[in-house]
Amino acid sequence: MGVLFNLRTKVDKYIDDKKLDGAVVRGKIALQTGFLLALVSAASPDDPIKIEKLRKAAESVLQAKF
Amino acid sequence: MKTISIKTKVIMVLTFSLTVGAAVQVGLVRDSYERNVAMVAQSALSSAQRTFDSLKARQLSSLALASSALANVEAIRDLFEKGDREALHAYLTPLYNDLKSREIPIMTFTDKEGNAFLRMQNPKSFGDSLQAITTVRKTMQTKEVAAGVDLAKPGLSAGSCRPILGKDGTAIGYIVVGCSLDQFVVTMKAQTADDYILMGYKSFLDEKLYRNGRKARGQPDTWDQFGTILVFGKTVEPQPTDEYEKELQNLPAAGRLLERASVNGKTLVRGVFPLYDAAGGAIGGIFVQHDITALHLGMKRVQNLAIAAVISLALLLCFTIAIVLNRLVFARLRHTMDIVTRVVGGEFSQRIVPASGDEVGHLEELFEQFRTIFVGLVDDVSKQQAKDDEKSA
Fold it and tell me: What residue numbers bound the domain in which A8 lies?
């Protein structure tokens, strides 16, 4: 438990650090993954498919390695 | 094609339509030009034919008058009847010189069998038969005055023949007065400003006589220039490449329009009308050249203007339609997509406000309703998730 949430946290931090437009970036990632980042919490189960989708979407939108 | 934007597709369709429109317009301009050229060419041909007929009629009338006057002079008749060639020549010399100065250089007397008795233009030549000359033959048959164009051994001429009547009223001989047709085309050019080439069939001529005549006048020998036909008068040099012989074949009485030509940067329309002798037989034709360079350049200018106008219109329309489409459709769609992205990204407070009641406005309204439902669902799920988290804690 927590891999998916950790990944979400990393993405949030990257957005904050780079001072990006959070709503737009998260929206683009959500549209690629098919689920809302806002609904990923610490209690969210570590679905490997969701984790992979989030990683790929984040890397594609942010052009960074996660 | 699927990846091309609607804006590009609309501009492509518009450009295609305008190009087709331009092509049609250019086609119409060309068609109109062709009709105008055909009309101008026909008009030039008819005008040339009328001018020639009018000049010929005037000339033949003068010749008929001269022959009539001569045939009725008693002294001339008496000298002719006596067969005194020298006395007749001496008597007629002042009168002949006067007529010659008025471009009537042919004055010939024949006996009643049509044999030359006296040629004022060549007194030493007599005794030969002139029956091959249509005008003479016609007068001998009808005993009436005849006038017309003749293509005979010496060349092409217009002439009038009338009988010289003896005291008993019978024909004792004939008098022929005539002029060359070579200068007709020069007079026609002065009247119409068009160029002419007068051609006739060589079969009516005597080659030796023709060649000697040209040589005596210091003119180049053109006997072999155009096959079975010969140039008798011209205001412009004939083109060696033109098929004059072929163009004279089966020529209708009203003449015929020929292929357009470009010579020394000039655009010319051409035509030819037939030349008939006194008996109505075809003996050649007159080629007409009318300069339409100004008309041709005018058409080119209109065509270029039409193309430039269509291109300008196409650019202006593309630009205007692109701006209008962008403002009415694409900018609003982009704005809606931006808000949907932001809402999905967690900024639930963003609202889509329809800008107008048009089709895109209806879509914006639909998206706003969808957004409201979506935000409500997310809110419910968030609350449920918070409760689950509390329970599990």
Answer: 3-62
Subunit contact A28:B341, Cβ cutoff 8 A: yes
Mutation site, B340, B341, B349, B391, interface A, largest A CB count within 10 A: B341
- Comparing CA positions, the residue from B326, B328, B317, B322 lying closest to residue B16 is B317
Contact yes or no for B342 and A23 at CB 8 A = yes
Burial of residue B144, with CB atoms counted within 10 A of its CB: 0-12 exposed, 13-18 middle, 19 or more buried: exposed
Q: Would you call A61 an interface residue with chain B, using a CB distance cutoff of 8 Å? A: no
> What are A1-55's pLDDT values in tens digits?
589 999 999 999 999 999 999 999 999 999 999 999 988 988 888 999 999 999 9
Chain B residues whose CB is inside 8 A of the A39 CB are 378, 381-382, 385
> Is A31 in the B-facing interface, judged by CB distances under 8 Å?
yes
Give kind and range of the element (H or E) at residue B174: strand B171-180
Domains detected in chain B: 6-14+298-384 (no CATH), 72-180 (3.30.450.20)
CB-CB contact of B314 with B15 (8 Å): yes
B121 phi and psi, to 5 degrees?
A: -75, -20
Global pTM reads 0.67
- The residue assigned the tokens 């092409």 is B156
Chain B residue numbers with beta carbons less than 8 Å from the beta carbon of A37 are 345-346
| pLDDT on residue B115 | 94
> Over chain B (393 residues), what is each successive 10-residue block's mean pLDDT?
75 83 83 86 90 90 90 90 93 93 91 93 89 89 89 82 89 92 84 91 84 82 86 87 85 91 88 89 91 87 83 85 89 93 90 88 92 90 82 72
A8 contact B CB<8A: no
Counted domains in chain A: 1
